[in-house]
Each structure stands twice: as C-alpha cells, then as structure tokens.
C-alpha cells in the first residue's frame, strides 16, 4: 500500500509544481498589464523591475494555489484513469476514497502553507509592491528628446532639437530656454550642433554645444542724472564656438516614500492587525453612539428632565470601561501613565436634575405662556442644529460600518482562499477519475471553467457583503461552500464509476426517458 501511495503522490507533485509556476506567470502577466503604461519609459533598471515582479508574484499566491491544485489533481487522476491504473488499484480492493488520501493529506499541508503565506507573506509583499508602484508612477519618464518637439521634463528648462543622429548623442539645431530665474524667456541658447550625454552616474546631463549664440535680457545698469535706469531692460548677444552646459537630473531619480503611509490598507494587514483595526472601528462606533445618547442632556434641561433614556448594554459597558481608563490617566504626565493617588471625579450636582415643587410650578407657568417669535426662532435653530448633528453622526456610522466590513472581508478572505485548496482538490480529483483524460487538453478547459465559476461567485459574494445584502461570512464563504457541495457530488459519482462525460451515458438516459414517456402515453390512450 505504501508503494501505491508513493506512486500517486509523486504523480501529483510534479504537475502541481509545474502548473503552479505557469499559473503564477499567467496571473502575474495579466496583473502587470494594468501598469504597463506607468512602467514603460521610466528607465527603471532590471533591479527595480525584478523587485516589483517578485513582490507581485508573491501577491498572486492566494489565487494561484487553488487553481494549481485543481489543474494538477485533474491531470493526475486523469492520467491514472486513462492508463487504467485506477482500475488496477480498485481490482486490489482499494477504494477510490482510499487512493485519494495521500494527495489529500498533501493538499492539507498546502492549505496550511497557503494560510501562512496569505497571513504573513502576502501583506508584506503587497506593501512593498504597491508602495514601489506608487513611487514608479511618481517618477518622471526617462530623458527622451524627440526631433522637432520641446522637452520640458527638466525643471525650468525647455529643450528643442531639430535632428538627432543614429548614435543618439549627436544633435543638430539645438534651442535651450532657461527659465530658472522665473522671469520668462530671458535667457536663450541656440547652437548649430552639439553632443548630449550623462555624467556622474546619470546624475547630471551635459551638453557640448558648437557654433551658436547666447541671448540674455536683464535690467539696465545705465543711470540718468536722477539715478534712475535709462532703459527698463538691456539685452546681450554672445557668440561662442564651443560651450558646455550642465543640468541637474536629480528629479529623475526614483524616490522612495515611507511605507507607513500605505500600511492602513486592508490588503496589507494580517489577521491580528485586522482584529485590532476592527476593534478600533468598534470603539469609534460606540463613541459616536454614546455622544448621540448624551445629546439629550443638552436638549432637555428643564422639560422632560425627569425622563431617563437607558443606555444599551454594550454602550454601558463601553462607557464604564472608558471612564475607568480616564480615571487611571495622570493629568500631569499625559496618556498612558497610571496615577496611584485617588482622583476625585467630577459628578454633576443632583440639584440640576432634581426639580422641586416651586421650580416645577414656576416652569409650568412659563410653559403656559404664549410663545414669542424669538423663542420660536431659537427653538427652530436648535432643532436644525441637532438634526445636522444626528445626520453627521449617521454619516459617520455608515463610514465606520463600511470600514469594518472591509477589514472583516479581508479577514475572512485569508481563511477562505486557503480552504479553497481543499475544495478545488475535492472537485479536481473525482472529476479527473470520471473524465479519464490526462494531459493539458480537457483538464485545462475544465479547470478554467470551474475557476471562472469560483472567481465570479467570490467577486459577487464580496460585492454583496460590501453592500449589506448578505452578511460578510456568507458572502465570502459562499463560493467555497457551493463548490464543496459540487465536489462531494463528483466524488459520489466517481465512487460508482459514473460516466458523466461519455455520450453513451446520456444516450441511455434519453432512451429510458423516451420509453417511460411512450409507455405513459400508451396507457393514457388505451381504452379501459
């Protein structure tokens, strides 16, 4: 039995490694096409491109692992069925379920590995990849002078070249506008020819210009008798046979942004960090709700003063915990320092909430007086103010709810993407035993079909979860559950050697249906 397990397991590992690499390459190529325009022409170098591709390849692992398991299991059991090796195993009294066990335990190991990668490697890779991608987008294009066009990527410099020879260094008909003085076109250099190249590790751009003129306009130095300049400006023209001009290219360097500005995104957080994020969102929600409940004390100071509005149990616990934390903070040292001396907490005077009979009678007499116009305006303004506050509170709650759903969705996706490996194996292995076709023909088509189905259900469930149509666990786990049921049905059919993909199977079913239909029709038409 060990030899059979070894045979089945070794026949699975090879196709799995191959299909995993192929799937990662295909998904990586498809993903990088979105950023093709942002990368081309930036002169990034192979080191930066290799780093970007490496991190994005790790980012593709959650999607590539289940698809590789599905395709490799289909190929493995399709080959075993095509060469009648499964038939030989069954003739020895070994059931199909028992023959699946060695690969099943290996897939369980892959599921644990996928979970570790999704929870640890993928968030870090996403942080590195997208922060680097942001810096690449901000980087200026590489130096590219085109014939007959002004080049303005160098700050405060405009360059035009009429002709650029094949060596890409020799230039003809050069015009350079220097705007670094921020006074307009006051300095212009025109040359018949020249050479262009970078120096000091591409930090500076150097022009060697030949046979040209330099035009400069500036303030006049000639004064009249009163000390005022005779002319507002003067101009000068300098002829040169050879001239060198150097421009700074520091703005073309790839500047890295601090990664802390990207760490708040949900795809860059692992499960413990997502738990902290959801907990902080819950605290914000409780704080907004508590402030809304406390608004009543400011609204009804006299009228309905005796009425009480009981806090919900969750808000009451939050208020106690918040007050206990506030009492432990030292007013002199700031946040986080525990004060060992008892602090006298402020308590509102009971007299402000207890209304005696004289005050009650006086307030009743006041309320019986006819309302004046200023009183009505003040009351209306207060109502409008409170309405605006409650609308803002509701908007804040909706925003916090959306944030909480995003973190909760990512938390469940880390688990569901890992469990998808087992689900895909339960589909691929029985289906390969039923199809009995190996290679890359039918298995690839079937794998693509189920992967598209899995992807569509996952995206639809995530969308419905964000919109609140279904709960987050239902939306994220629906695709795994549905495909798990499909896999169990395929496993049941594979155990009884069902020929679901043979034309004869459906011909027999059709013939049986026609016979039953004709028999029923004959019984109905035959007179008693």
Task: Provide key terms for this protein.
528 residues, alpha+beta, six-stranded antiparallel β-sheet, two-stranded antiparallel ribbon, 13 helices, 8 strands, 59% helix, 13% strand
Describe this structure in words.
The protein has 528 residues and is α+β, with helices and mostly antiparallel strands. The chain has four domains: 2-139 and 412-501, no CATH class; 150-252, no CATH class; 269-405, no CATH class; 502-528. The protein is 59% helix and 13% strand. The strands form two sheets. It has a six-stranded antiparallel β-sheet with strand order 1-2-3-4-5-6, with no helix packed on it. It has a two-stranded antiparallel ribbon with strand order 7-8. It starts with a helix and ends with a helix. Residues 332-355 have low confidence and may be disordered.
How would you summarize the topology of this molecule?
Elements: H1 2-32, H2 36-39, H3 46-59, H4 61-82, H5 85-91, H6 96-138, E1 150-151, E2 157-164, E3 170-178, E4 187-199, E5 204-219, E6 233-248, H7 271-299, H8 313-328, E7 329-330, E8 334-338, H9 357-368, H10 373-435, H11 442-467, H12 472-495, H13 503-525
Antiparallel strand pairs: 1-2, 2-3, 3-4, 4-5, 5-6, 7-8
């Amino acid at each position: 039995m060990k030899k059979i397990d070894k045979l089945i397991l070794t026949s699975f590992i090879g196709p799995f490694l191959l299909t995993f690499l192929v799937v990662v390459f295909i998904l990586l190529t498809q993903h990088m096409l979105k950023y093709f325009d942002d990368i081309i022409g930036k002169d990034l170098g192979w080191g930066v491109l290799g780093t970007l591709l490496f991190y994005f390849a790790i980012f593709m692992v959650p999607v590539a692992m289940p698809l590789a398991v599905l395709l490799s299991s289909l190929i493995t059991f399709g080959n075993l069925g095509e060469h009648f090796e499964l038939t030989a195993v069954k003739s020895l009294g070994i059931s199909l379920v028992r023959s699946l066990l060695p690969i099943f335990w290996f897939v369980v190991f892959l599921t644990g590995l996928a979970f570790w990668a999704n929870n640890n490697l993928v968030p870090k890779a996403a942080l590195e990849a997208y922060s680097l991608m942001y810096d690449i987008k901000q980087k200026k294009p590489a130096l590219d002078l085109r014939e007959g066009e002004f080049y303005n990527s160098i700050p405060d410099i405009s360059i035009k070249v009429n002709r650029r020879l094949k060596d890409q260094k020799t230039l003809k008909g050069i015009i350079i506008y220097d705007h670094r003085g921020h006074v307009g076109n006051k300095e212009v250099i025109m040359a018949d020819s020249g050479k262009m190249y970078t120096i000091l590790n591409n930090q500076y751009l150097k022009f060697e210009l030949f046979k040209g003129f330099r035009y400069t306009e500036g303030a006049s130095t000639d004064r009249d008798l009163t000390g005022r300049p005779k002319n507002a400006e003067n101009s000068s023209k300098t002829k040169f046979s050879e001239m060198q001009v150097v421009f700074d290219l520091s703005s073309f360097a790839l500047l890295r942004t601090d990664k802390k500005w990207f760490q708040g995104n949900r795809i860059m957080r692992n499960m413990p960090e997502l738990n902290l994020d959801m907990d902080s969102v819950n605290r914000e929600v409780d704080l907004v709700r508590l402030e809304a409940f406390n608004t009543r004390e400011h609204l009804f100071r006299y009228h309905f003063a005796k009425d009480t509005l009981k806090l919900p149990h969750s808000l009451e616990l939050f208020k106690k915990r918040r007050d206990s934390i506030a009492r432990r903070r030292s007013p002199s040292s700031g946040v986080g320092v525990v004060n060992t001396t008892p602090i006298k907490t402020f308590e509102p005077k009971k007299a402000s909430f207890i209304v005696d009979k004289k005050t009650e009678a006086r307030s009743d007499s006041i309320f019986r007086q006819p309302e004046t116009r200023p009183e009505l305006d003040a009351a209306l303004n207060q109502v409008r103010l409170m309405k605006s506050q409650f609308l803002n509170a509701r908007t804040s709650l909706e925003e916090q709810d959306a944030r909480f759903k995003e973190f909760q969705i990512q938390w469940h996706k880390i688990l569901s993407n890992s469990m998808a490996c087992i689900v895909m194996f339960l589909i691929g292995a029985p289906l390969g035993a039923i199809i009995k076709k190996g290679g890359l023909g039918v298995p690839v088509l079937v794998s693509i079909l189920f992967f598209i189905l899995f992807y569509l259900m996952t995206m639809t469930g995530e969308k419905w979860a964000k919109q609140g149509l279904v709960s987050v666990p239902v939306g994220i786990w629906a695709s795994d559950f549905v495909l798990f049921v499909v896999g169990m049905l395929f496993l049941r059919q594979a155990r009884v050697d069902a020929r679901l993909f043979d034309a004869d199977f459906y011909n027999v079913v059709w013939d049986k249906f026609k016979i039953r239909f004709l028999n029923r029709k004959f019984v109905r038409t035959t007179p008693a």
